[in-house]
Amino acid sequence: MDSAIDLSDSSKALSLPHIRYQLIRLEDTVLFHMIERAQFPLNPTIYKPGAIQMEGASETTTSDGKLLSFCDWVIREQEKLQSQIRRYQSPDEHPFFPDALQPAVLPELNYPAVLWPNDVNVNNELKERYINTILPACCVQTGRPERPEAQENYGSAATADLACLQSLSRRIHFGKFVAESKFLAAPEKFVPLIKSADLAGIDAAITDAKVEAKVLERLGKKAEMYGGDPNMDAEAPRKIDVDAVVNMYRDHVIPLTKIVEVDYLMERLKGTKWE
Ligand SMILES: O=C(O)C(=O)C[C@]1(C(=O)O)C=C[C@@H](O)C=C1
């Protein structure tokens, strides 16, 4: 959607330096959204299905009858709306609730097929990790007691969650473009690995440990800068914990990006001469 990369220009969309530039830019987006979210208490009740009475709300379950939490309901309702303005027609956007998507009210866009047809979507796994691991670490300020639930912030917290999850999802699913770019650069390396379903081998082939170390180092600096007090006032509370942000990338964002890359490549030979 709000892409600085021109997805209609495949030479750019598949250039690894261009994709990495986009990933670097998305670090800022993710970090700022996490800072916004961290100003509110964790409010765990909003993630528990059925815990909050939603007076007059339509569709408080998924289409197969699963009860939604308040946060899930907010995400699902937003996705209903955003699908109508073509968000999910863009190859870099993936819904959390595909069951809720509506027909677009605008004419279909014709994106040229830059990616190979695939149905890779790790959003369920992302949301589970976000709620259970990422968010608890980011909402707790180091050295300060956990803040009590604030019922008046339920809406703000869920709104911030949507922004966090959408930016994280976009970053992680950019792995498809990374994978396509790497595949096209060396099909002779990837085809045998894919054919023998050598997941560890594919993972090793897409891994660049130096780039990963750089990502974490840069992110730590950004979290230090954007989450701290510009006047270097040591007494001023931090807006977000630096370690929580770095750990989020090290333990979740980069690993999930790599899962997307591997899963995408496992679908890459379908309908090709290599199949
Ligand atoms: O930049 C790449 O080559 C990627 O595949 C992306 C990424 C990342 O998530 O930042 C993932 C795997 C690589 O080991 C390095 C970095």
From TrEMBL:
<dbReference type="InterPro" id="IPR036263">
    <property type="entry name" value="Chorismate_II_sf"/>
</dbReference>
<keyword id="KW-0413">Isomerase</keyword>
<keyword id="KW-0827">Tyrosine biosynthesis</keyword>
<keyword id="KW-0584">Phenylalanine biosynthesis</keyword>
<dbReference type="GO" id="GO:0005737">
    <property type="term" value="C:cytoplasm"/>
</dbReference>
<dbReference type="GO" id="GO:0009094">
    <property type="term" value="P:L-phenylalanine biosynthetic process"/>
</dbReference>
<keyword id="KW-0057">Aromatic amino acid biosynthesis</keyword>
<dbReference type="InterPro" id="IPR002701">
    <property type="entry name" value="CM_II_prokaryot"/>
</dbReference>
<comment type="subunit">
    <text>Homodimer.</text>
</comment>
<dbReference type="InterPro" id="IPR037039">
    <property type="entry name" value="CM_AroQ_sf_eucaryotic"/>
</dbReference>
<dbReference type="GO" id="GO:0004106">
    <property type="term" value="F:chorismate mutase activity"/>
</dbReference>
<feature type="domain" description="Chorismate mutase">
    <location>
        <begin position="155"/>
        <end position="261"/>
    </location>
</feature>
<dbReference type="Pfam" id="PF01817">
    <property type="entry name" value="CM_2"/>
</dbReference>
<protein>
    <recommendedName>
        <fullName>Chorismate mutase</fullName>
        <ecNumber>5.4.99.5</ecNumber>
    </recommendedName>
</protein>
<keyword id="KW-0963">Cytoplasm</keyword>
<dbReference type="InterPro" id="IPR008238">
    <property type="entry name" value="Chorismate_mutase_AroQ_euk"/>
</dbReference>
<dbReference type="GO" id="GO:0046417">
    <property type="term" value="P:chorismate metabolic process"/>
</dbReference>
<dbReference type="GO" id="GO:0006571">
    <property type="term" value="P:tyrosine biosynthetic process"/>
</dbReference>
<keyword id="KW-0028">Amino-acid biosynthesis</keyword>
<comment type="pathway">
    <text>Metabolic intermediate biosynthesis; prephenate biosynthesis; prephenate from chorismate: step 1/1.</text>
</comment>
